[in-house]
Amino acid sequence: MKEPNIITSKNLTKIYGKNRSLDKVTLNIPRGSIYGLVGNNGAGKTTFLKILAGHIFPTSGEFTLFEANNPMDYNKVRQRCGCIIENPGFFPKMTAKQNLEYYRIQRGIPGKATVMKVLELTGLSQAYNKRFENMSLGMKQRLGLALALLGEPDLLILDEPINGLDPIGIVEFRNLLLKLNKEKHITILISSHILTELEHIATDFCLLSNGKVLEECTAEKLRENCHTYLSVKVENAKKYAALLEEKLHCTNYKIMPDNTIHIYDNSDNIKCYSELAATLDIGLLSFSKNEINLENYYMHLIGNSKEMI
After folding, report:
1. What single string gives the DSSP state of each residue in the chain?
2. Distance between CA 211 and CA 45 in Å, rounded?
3. Model-level pTM greater than 0.90?
4. Are 81 and 55 in contact (CB under 8 A)?
5. Interatomic CA distance for residues 189 and 170, integer angstroms
6. Which DSSP string corresponds to 127-158?
7. Which of 3, 148, 218, 238 has the fewest CB atoms within 10 Å distance of its CB?
């Protein structure tokens, strides 16, 4: 039997003045998943996460968190969540261990050993005595994750956790999240505008723009959509498209605004498409094989790509 979703939302809306930060967002986050919330700045990602964490309230709509669906129960189940939303507040002069010990006591989490446990889990056991002000950005991000893990959560809510990290730091943080998901069975909800990075770890996706859900899909379905295609630029795009259908029985194509034709069927058979233009005396201006990744697929959905797929 399939486990229930750890989070669901239905028509969730948040309005600030005349601005709809979230506009009837409906989505389902499976238990055990790494769920990627994809969107550019202003897409509504942080607003959605803040509602889940209890930092703000929705204007309308509803959501469930661990099957809780009212404010009284939200407060109870949020104890099972660990969050990094915006920058965690650490004391600059205090060490990693001292900072976490402060929050452990403040939150009433039992067991002094808990602090060293999460420092070890996040790869900071050797830096437990290092002051926060002397830490690298990557170490600070790990300390934020250690703070989120203090209460042994079932769900991690992470808002742009790899912002500012160098390539090595990004890979290390990615591997750490994969480990937590696989070994600790923690569901992870992660937002990012670094779309290609989410391709490496997410099992499910929600693509947002201007507060609206453009698409929700599994990683497998997204890979099906992010396939290869041929880009053919000819002197007469409409004539070439008509011949595609008549001679090659190809209907899965698009004529782009710059008169480039994107062909999605049988993209490995390059020769037949180039010969079609040559034999029928249509000037072939350019010809290339391209791969659609998450970034240009997203840009296609919001309609702002310079070269739409």
Report:
1. -PPPEEEEEEEEEEEETTEEEEEEEEEEEETT-EEEEE--TTSSHHHHHHHHHTSS--SEEEEEETTB-SHHHHHHHGGGEEEE-S-----TTSBHHHHHHHHHHHHT---THHHHHHHHHTT-GGGTTSBGGGS-HHHHHHHHHHHHTTT--SEEEEESTTTT--HHHHHHHHHHHHHHHHHS--EEEEEES-HHHHTTT-SEEEEEETTEEEEEEEHHHHHHHS-EEEEEEES-HHHHHHHHHHHH----EEE-TTSEEEE-SSTT-HHHHHHHHHHTT--EEEEEEEE--HHHHHHHHHT--SS--
2. 8
3. no
4. no
5. 17
6. GTTSBGGGS-HHHHHHHHHHHHTTT--SEEEE
7. 3
Q: Which two tokens stand for residue 103?
A: 């929050």
**Cβ–Cβ < 8 Å for 42, 212:** no
| Band of pLDDT at residue 201, cut at 50, 70 and 90 | very high
pLDDT digit string (tens) for 20-33? 999 999 999 999 99
Q: Are 287 and 232 in contact (CB under 8 A)?
A: yes
Only one residue has tokens 């079932």, namely 154
**Cβ-based neighbours of 277, under 8 Å, separated by 6 or more:** 232, 234, 240, 283, 284
Please count the CA atoms within 13 angstroms of the CA of 168 that sit on its side-chain side: 4
pLDDT of residue 169: 84
User: What's the pLDDT tens digit per position in 137-173?
Assistant: 889 989 999 999 998 999 999 999 888 788 888 888 8
Measured distance CA(251)–CA(240) in Å, rounded? 12
Beta bridge partners of 82: 156
- pLDDT recorded at residue 256: 83
φ, ψ of residue 89 in degrees (nearest 5): -90, 100
What span, in angstroms and rounded, lies between the C-alpha atoms of 143 and 225? Answer: 37
The tens digit of pLDDT for each residue in 73-129 reads 999 999 999 999 977 789 999 999 999 999 999 999 998 899 999 999 999 999 999
